[in-house]
Every structure is written in structure tokens, then in C-alpha cells.
Amino acid sequence: MLVLLAAVAAALHAMSAGIHLFGVAALNPTWRELDGPAYVLVKQAADRRFPMLMRPFTLLGLVAVVALAVVATVAGEQPAGALASAGAVAAVVGLVAVVRGDLPINQRMATWSAADLPADWQEERRRWERWFAVRTAAASVAAVACLAALATLGGQS
């Protein structure tokens, strides 16, 4: 049961981290090459789709890693419990980055007109990219912590 919970938490966080790393490594640099109007249209389209994909990974992953931390600790699996706790902290940091950074900026960008961009649109994009980098780092730490917790549980059933 514990190994299954660790595998679920690891899978959810690994997929989330992979999606975010792809964004940092490929999508964001590509979007940065677009002119203002094209960037806004692409970003607005992505922001209509991306939450449908990421919300389940984020919330289910958070629940899974917190459950893993609690169950592993109660079961006396201190290394796995400590690693899962670190993953849970990272997942919370990622959620805070979304709520305090990504989401408010995305909501502002959703109101922009491609034909009439705000004067500071490039600074707003840079601010969003910084929050997205924090979110990506947190997702990566959570994934590594969950994978390490799974590895410490080894072949247990």
C-alpha cells in the first residue's frame, strides 16, 4: 500500500515537473521570440487550456505527497516520511507560486488586447517567467523527493 502511494505521488509529480521543465526549456524561449500581439494571443490560448491539465496534477499530487508523508511517518518509515515531507513542502511552494504569481499575472494578461498592449507588457512577461521558474523548481524538487521516497521503500509490498 505504501509503495503504491509513493508510486502515485512520484508519477504525478514527475509528470508535473516534466511539463514545467518543457515550458522553461522550450515554450517560454519560443514565445519570447514572438512580437507582442502574437505573444499575447498564444499566451491567452495556452492559459485557457493549461489549467485544465495542470490543476489535477497539482492538487492530486499535493494530496498524494501529504498522504505519503503522513502514512510513511506513522508506519515508521522515517526516511520515506522525511523525503515525502520535503516533497510536500516543495509542492506547497509550487502552489503558492501559482496563487501569488502565475495566476494573478495570467488573469491580467487575459484582459489584454493584442492590438493595444500595456506599456509594461514585457516586464509583466518577465515577472510571469520568474514565477513560472519558481513553480518549475518546486515541481522538480517535489518529483525528486517523491522518487527518492519510493526508492527508499524499495521492494516492500
TrEMBL record:
Protein name from the UniProt record: Anthrone oxygenase family protein
Stored Pfam families: Anthrone_oxy
Transmembrane segments: 57-75, 82-99, 132-153
Record organism: Klenkia terrae
Transmembrane found in the keyword field: yes
The entry's keywords: Membrane, Transmembrane, Transmembrane helix
Domain of life: Bacteria
